[in-house]
Amino acid sequence: MGLGNLQQMTMLAVARLGENAFAKVVREELEVATGRELAVSTVYVTLVRLEEQGLVTSETTAPDPARGGRGKRYFRLTPEGWAELRHAREVMARLWEGVKPA
User: What pLDDT, in 10s, does the model give residues 26-79?
Assistant: First the structure.
């Protein structure tokens, strides 16, 4: 399969956030880590695509009247997602072997 940069970073943010991983907070985590601004919709679409690939799963909380009747959708990595992240890390480590930074 092979993860793109945004997918890999999004999955790592989900892993770091644990039970608190919903789109807005994942976006904030990515912005702090990368120094890049991201639209919450970009992160949300990435999370949905990762879910379609079986790499993350989600649960939506009950509607909250304080939030206009909407629940929050929380994401977490699946075992397949963890395996894909480990594979990506191993590939990058192999590629870095023998590289001498300029």
Answer: 999 999 999 999 999 999 999 999 999 999 999 998 887 776 777 889 999 999
By the 8 A CB rule, do 85 and 16 touch? no
What are the CA-CA distances from residue 97 to residues 3, 5, 93, 101 (Å)?
A: 20, 20, 6, 11
User: What is the token pair recorded at 16?
Assistant: 């770091």
Residues 6+ apart with CB under 8 A from 54: 78, 80, 81
Buried b (16+ CB within 10 A) or exposed e, 18-36: eeebbbebbbebbeeeeee
Q: What does the alpha-carbon distance between residue 63 and residue 72 come to, in Å, rounded to a whole number? A: 8
Q: Whole-prediction pTM value?
A: 0.87
Q: Scanning the structure block, which residue is given the tokens 């949905």?
A: 48
